[in-house]
Task: inverse folding
């Protein structure tokens, strides 16, 4: 243990937010040094990553939906967990290599944030992938804890802090106090489901087939959870499902909002369930402390408004909500000896 601490003084330790849509890497003392899509381009029928193992992240995302028959762009994370073990390992290895660049001969210690609802088998898969990708020692931390710390919440104090982290594959809802999670709800409904809802609406209403990148762009540009002061429109291009030919149409923010009602409603239900299970004294704290909204889904217009209206509790948007989890892992790295007791490591899982 002492030897590991001494090694830690010389290694480039890193925290990783291994997300369904994006992977962020923090280095101790440097902050966020990498933020790239969780996408890998491989030769179809194999697990061989293209471009000498470098077709990962931004390079691979450019290929999504546009690859020829011999190439496929894969998102190896599904609903916040590993869907493809080998590809995730290749992706992690690329990101660790890119950040580490062999600046020291000592392999890094790595803290990885994982959804609170994943199974022991899924945790083991994350640990194994990180170890084989080049980590000396791997620690896992629950995403809501990392997110709460990254958002600047006083989670170590004897008062309730509530975080709602709407990511790409999962939504994490947690009430925390005294450096532990009191109540947690983890649902596999988040940003990806919003994109799918928009794509489904375009099929049903316009007989127009669109790709996931187009659906995401619609969500970002005109998507909302609550009525807007000035409603928006957007020109959308795709493939006509009847003629099979390229076509464009115009959609409005009102119809996109209607399409998003179901996934947004499921997020609200998860928050409501968590509040109903919260101890009365902690619930009383939340009247004053409110709810903090984080993750990429927090950027959906009006998300804070609909949550506040549904719960009657004040909702605030975290500063830079997309990086809260990654920033939280950086805090764990800075104080790894102090936090070791609540971090799950490869030793605990063996």
Result:
């Amino acid at each position: 243990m002492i030897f590991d601490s001494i090694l830690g003084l010389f290694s480039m330790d890193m925290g990783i937010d291994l997300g369904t849509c994006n992977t962020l890497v923090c280095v101790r003392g440097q902050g966020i040094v990498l933020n790239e899509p969780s996408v890998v381009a491989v030769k179809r029928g194999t697990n061989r990553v293209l471009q000498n193992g470098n077709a990962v992240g931004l390079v691979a995302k450019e290929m999504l939906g546009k690859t020829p028959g011999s190439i496929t762009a894969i998102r190896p994370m599904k609903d916040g967990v590993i869907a493809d073990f080998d590809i995730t390992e290749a992706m992690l290895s690329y990101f660790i290599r890119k950040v580490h660049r062999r600046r020291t001969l000592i392999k890094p210690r790595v803290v990885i944030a994982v959804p609170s609802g994943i199974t022991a088998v899924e945790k083991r898969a994350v640990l194994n992938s990180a170890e084989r990708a080049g980590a000396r020692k791997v620690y896992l931390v629950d995403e809501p804890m990392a997110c709460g710390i990254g958002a600047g919440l006083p989670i170590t104090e004897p008062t309730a802090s509530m975080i709602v982290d709407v990511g790409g594959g999962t939504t994490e809802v947690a009430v925390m106090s005294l450096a532990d999670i009191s109540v947690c709800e983890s649902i596999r409904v988040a940003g990806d489901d919003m994109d799918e809802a928009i794509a489904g609406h375009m099929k049903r209403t316009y007989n127009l087939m669109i790709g996931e990148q187009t659906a995401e762009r619609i969500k970002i540009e005109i998507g909302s959870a609550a009525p807007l002061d000035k409603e928006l429109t957007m020109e959308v291009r795709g493939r006509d499902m009847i003629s099979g030919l390229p076509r464009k149409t115009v959609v409005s923010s009102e119809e996109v909002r209607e399409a998003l009602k179901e996934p947004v409603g499921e997020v609200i239900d998860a928050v409501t369930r968590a509040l109903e299970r919260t101890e009365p004294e902690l619930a009383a704290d939340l009247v004053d402390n409110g709810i903090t909204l984080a993750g990429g889904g927090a950027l959906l217009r009006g998300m804070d408004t609909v949550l506040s209206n549904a719960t009657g509790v004040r909702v605030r948007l975290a500063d830079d909500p997309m990086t809260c989890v990654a920033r939280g892992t950086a805090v764990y790295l800075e104080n790894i000896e102090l936090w070791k007791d609540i971090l799950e490591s490869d030793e605990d899982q063996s």
